[in-house]
Please model this.
Amino acid sequence: MKLIALVIKRYDNLFKNQIFNFSDEYKVDFNFETNELKIDKNSDYIENFYGESIYNISPIVGINGVGKSTILNLIGYYHRAEDQNKDINQFFHVYLDTNGKFYLRGENYDLNSITIEGLATDQVDINGYYDYQKRDKLIYIMNEDRRPIGSFGNYQFLEVHLIQDFGWYILNGIFEVYEVLYSRGLVSSSYKFSFGFSKNSIPEKFLNVLEEKEFFFCLVLMVIVNIRNKFELGLSDEEIERHFVDGDYQTLFDKITEETEEKKDFINSLVNFLNYLEQFIHEYKIKEYCDIMGNRIVEIGYGRENFDNRFKFEKLYLDNENLLNKASDLKYHGFRVIDDFYYNMSTGETNILKVMSYVKWLQMNPSQGTCQLVVDELESGMHLEWSRSLINFLVNYINEINKVGGMNFQLIFTTHSPYMLSDIKPGNVIMIEKNQETGYSEGKVLQNTFAKNIQEIMKENLIDNIYGDFALAKINSMIERLNGEEEQEGNEEELLKEIHLISEPILRNKLLEMYDKKYNTSEFSIEKQLQKLNLNEEQRQQVRAMIEENISNADADK
Model:
């Protein structure tokens, strides 16, 4: 299911009468007065511009607070708690399926009142029906540090995954992705991840017994206590403690199996998983420790030296998934061997691993249509060189892994990086700005971005000045002092030092000229400049001769 456009009649006090197009193939226009919807096909549309596996890429840019993340929330069906009951919010999505049929899905919008131009009745659906078996996927990777309180839902024709943090299931693809990123120089450090459990997961009466025990010992105790409580088994605390002091947890599992024959398959799978986990931790553990809250954590490393053993890491995921499925069959909801999962890398490395791991997961769990990959601040935490290379890497990687799968991706993301905009087709970058008169945010399309000079993109669309505000204030202060009629005694030397701090040569030299004129000095004179150069006397004479010749030629041309 391709997202063609988002049409907003009103959303809170942020948007009013706005159309956001996310397709290069079609353009949606809507008259908010007459409720007339028009969908035109782009005659200049270039199919497979990003390869056969990518339908389109749509960055959303703008300063903080103008509503970029709000647009992603609407696309990703995430409802902020404070907005869920606001009747003033009216908007609808325009989708396109693989058969060329358009679907309109609205929020508080009377879709029956819309008049659609140029399309036959059977080309548009507004009644809400969609075959559940044919649902496409939508992955919304949200910045967990800025996630507002809310919920997500109302997506009967899309299989929506709201991603707030790393889950266990992503381990199935992350190791292969890490190897690819490492081989291409996009990550350099070892991939380190940790898992652990809260001390609150273990009854207080056992805490003293566990203080000197290793991570795995404590983990097994937590699992057994939780199973005993869940299935209301007859194991006493004393019996559990006695066997654990002796290091004999297998006997406890045997007793559990005797009491719950119908759960034998689950218990056997659990024991097998724990045995493998114990071996895995012993082989790949970097360290284990307690955090400031007293939670027990073990850190695992996956680096170049482990590439040949990737299957062992992936087996950990597969066995865990199998175990969770069996627990679900027993209505044992919320069962987890590992309570928490952490990633121990830089923010930039983590984010690129996150995005690519979900791409890999989608490729392993494909649908037949288009998957929308929606990402908040795609390049967050990345070095500028990474952000410059990111679109090219994404395009190549997605097309490489999807040669056989036949899946299609549509990428929509917010960004502050001018480097990525230079890789985007004209007319596909959405710029959101605040209208100072109305107070509403408005979207406009940036037409000329592809292969454009990055400095021009920054100056025209992203920043108001090429200098930082602090530097600009300093420059203006220098100019005011140099233009002032009164001389400020005692400050000449300090002012001269500040002028020499300026790196831009044209500006620095102009200020030196002004300084010479005001204080009757020769800071900008030829002799003064020659003194700063590492030249011998013969070289200085040659430079003087060249300058004098240029001056003579310039005078002759007047």
Q: What stands out?
A: The two ends are 69 Å apart (CA to CA). The chain has a mean pLDDT of 79. The longest helix spans residues 264-284.
